[in-house]
Every structure is written in C-alpha cells, then in structure tokens.
Amino acid sequence: MTDPPTPNDSGSKAWSGRFSEPVSELVKRYTASVSFDQRMALQDIRGSLAHASMLARQGIVTAQDLADIERGMAQIRGEIERGEFVWRVDDEDVHLNIEKRLTALIGDAGKRLHTGRSRNDQVATDIRLWLRDAIDEILELIAGFQRNLLDLAEAHCATPLPGFTHLQVAQPVTFGHHLLAYYEMTRRDASRFADCRRRLNQLPLGAAALAGTSFAIDRVFVARELGFDGVCENSLDAVSDRDFAIEFCACCALIMTHLSRLSEELILWMNPAVGFIDLADRFCTGSSIMPQKKNPDVPELVRGKTGRVNGSLMALLTLMKGQPLAYNKDNQEDKEPLFDAADTLRDTLTIYADMITGIRVKPEAMRAALAKGYATATDLADYLVRKGLPFRDAHEAVARAVRVAETRGVDLADLALVELQAFSALIGEDVFDVVTVEGSLAARDHIGGTAPAQVRAAIARARDVLEKRE
Ligand code: ARG
C-alpha cells in the first residue's frame, strides 16, 4: 500500500491533514475571507486573549503558555497597527493568519490557544465585538448630526415654510418644526441601534464548533473580560445565527431611508424653481457642459447609497434564510455587506452633520410660496366653525373665497373685510388674526404643533435628551 500523494502545500493549512490534493489558486481565493475579515483583527486578538486567560485560570493551559500568548499577541497587534503584518490568502482568514503568526513567534503555546474553541464561535464573537464598536461610533455620529439639526431648527423656529401634502402647499409650518421631524426620526433610529447593541451583546465563545466543548471552560469569566452582558444560551444558535447582523443592517437601512427623504427635500428646496434654500458649494458640483449648473451631488448620493444599504440588508436576509443549523460557510459572506453598510452610514452621517451647517435658508421664497398656495384656508374654515358654522359649510364658504382670491391673484389675507363677508356674514374684523401666516402658526399651540413657542420647547427637550447621553 502506498500513501496518498502529499501535495506541496498540505502542511500550510490548519485543516489539511485529511486532504489528499491541494486546492487550486482560484478555490483558495474563492474560499478565503482574509482580504476583508482582517478588519476584525483587533477584535480577534481581544477575544483570543480573553479565551487564553480563561484556559490558564481553568488549568487547561499553563501560566507560561498564557504569558507566551500574551507576548506574541502584543507583538502581532503592533505589527498590524504599523501595517507590517503580512496577510496570506493561503491562511484563509483573519483567525488562521493570526494563529499561524502566533505559533511562528512563540511555538507550541500558539498551537494550544485553539483548545476548547472553534473558528465558528470565534468569528461569531469577533463580529459582535466589531459591531458593538461600530454602533457606539454611529450613536456618536447621530448625536452630532442632531446637534447641528437643532441649531438650524432653533434659528428658524419662527420661519414660515409651506407644509406640503401630495407635494402641494397645504398649511404653514415653521422651518424649525419641519427639521424637528427629522430629529424625531433619527431619535428612534438611535434607540433602534441601542436596542440592537443590547441584544447582540452576548458571548458566543464556548459554543466551539457547534455542540460546546469537553473542556471545563468558564464562559461567564470570558463574557465579563470582553464586556458582554451574558453568554449565548444555546451553542447551535450561538455559532449559526446572524440575526444581530441583519438587525444592524435593518437599523442602517432605516436611518439611511430617513436621510434619503431629507436629501430629497434638500434637492427639491434648492431647485431654482422652488428656491427655499441654498446649499454650500462644498456639497455640490458643477456640470462639465452646462456652465450655469450647481448640482446637489451629495444629497443625491445619500439617496443613491440608501439603495446600497438596503441591498446589504437583503443580502444578509437571503444569506440566512436557507441555512440549516448550525454553522455553514455561507456565513462568511455576512461580512462585506455588514462592513459596507456600516461604512456607508458612518460616512453619510459625518458628511450630513456638516451639510446641515451649509444650508442657507431663503425665507422670502418660502413666504411667497405660502401666499400662492392659500395655506391659511383651513384656518379660515376653523374660524367659521368657532363662530358656529358646521365644518362642511365652512369648507364650502372658504373654497368659494379661494376661487375669488385666485382669479384676482391675491392671498386670502389680502381680501378686504367686506369682500370676505360676502362668503359668510359670520366673518368679523378678528378674521385677520387667523388668516395670516403668523396667526395660523401661533394657533397650533400644543405639544407636537408648529407654533414657534412649541418648536422652541421641543428643541429644549431635545437638547436635554442629547446632553444626558454625554
Ligand atoms: N472565515 C470564516 C467565517 O467568516 C470563519 C469560520 C470558519 N469556520 C469553518 N468551519 N470553516 O465564517
């Protein structure tokens, strides 16, 4: 009997012992993840150090092994931070690259590190550690965006803007009130991220490949070392589910959707036909052919990149849906969409916080649009209701008044008292307190309403929330 042929590189793979032929370069590249999962290197080292400490405490490796591992890992961390670490596709992923280097540096202790652990629980741990950091950073960035949004809202808590329904002038709102709508959206977004963080902060290590390990490990100790709130209760679930990554991408997709809506408004508002705002040049570009153009490229890209983040969410959902328990290599595909969603959102939030400060408001244009749109028609109807007219009759009377004002090309507030009285005898001198834009705004004086006093109060509450998180 002859031994099966030994491929040239068989010795270089952590798992190649049972294999009789080498994988092709293409398959090597196809199955490797090191080109992208090296982003989790520091998390991987952190997880390994906690695991090694536990192994030493439990008497599974010696104190000398632990000291060697700590020394080796310190050197490797330095090499990575200085950009000197040589990542090898032959070593497949971040975990094996680091372990291989460790063994080259310290010998047998490096080979003992993997006792009681598998790459399956290792990678699940690394992603959670990475996401925890990403979420903390995103929460900071959301707060920065919100602070600038509140500053702009405060400066315009009494600036009238046409509020739209069906993209047609509906009723006056203040520009500050309008911006606060986005504060509320992003406040919920932040709380979603915080929730996601809470749920993912459980330790997978100890699940090993899928069933747990025969070594007397101490998972609670490792969880504490790594700042997890607890341990994953089921080993199969711990290594296989990526619901936390899906949830993270869903949070990213939702906040991007909100920012995309705001972008759409910025684009509309700065269209010369609308002209409500101007956007600082640093967020726009010109046209290579049309010299007059100033295009809102950054808001358009936020809108466009929202599609990309939605794509990440779909990719992860689809990745998961057909997988039987427990770990499958499919899961290696979770990282690129995840990283891309996080990177896109971080960049978007950073740019947006600055872009908010680059918005120049043009109140005259907003006011002119209000007058053209008969934005206070509802106020006149409400006025007649308060004078005793049933709402449907009031609606009818005001509709007639709008028709007349329209043919004359004036606003309701520009009609004389006697002219207004032709539509209802109930109309008195006090009507001019309500059909003006200021009157309309001031009347909506309740929590959630657009009255400048309410907007000011809402800003104060929002600032309070932001300060408390510091
Ligand atoms: N690179 C792998 C991943 O990202 C690590 C886990 C590999 N486990 C395995 N049994 N092949 O999922």
TrEMBL record:
GO molecular function: argininosuccinate lyase activity
InterPro entries hit by this protein: Arg_succ_lyase_C, Argininosuccinate_lyase, Fumarase/histidase_N, Fumarate_lyase_CS, Fumarate_lyase_fam, Fumarate_lyase_N, L-Aspartase-like
Keyword check for Transport: no
Principal localisation: cytoplasm
Residues of the Argininosuccinate lyase C-terminal domain: 374-441
GO CC terms: cytosol
Pathway(s) of this molecule: Amino-acid biosynthesis; L-arginine biosynthesis; L-arginine from L-ornithine and carbamoyl phosphate: step 3/3
UniProt keyword terms in alphabetical order: Amino-acid biosynthesis, Arginine biosynthesis, Cytoplasm, Lyase
Major enzyme class: lyase
Subcellular location: Cytoplasm
GO biological process entries: L-arginine biosynthetic process via ornithine
Endoplasmic reticulum found in the keyword field: no
Entry-linked PROSITE patterns: FUMARATE_LYASES (PS00163)
A family per Pfam: ASL_C2
EC number in record: 4.3.2.1
Domain Fumarate lyase N-terminal, chain residue ranges per copy: 17-311
Catalytic activity of the protein: 2-(N(omega)-L-arginino)succinate = fumarate + L-arginine
Membership in a protein family: Belongs to the lyase 1 family. Argininosuccinate lyase subfamily.
PANTHER family: ARGININOSUCCINATE LYASE
Name by which UniProt lists this protein: Argininosuccinate lyase
Species lineage: Bacteria, Pseudomonadati, Pseudomonadota, Betaproteobacteria, Nitrosomonadales
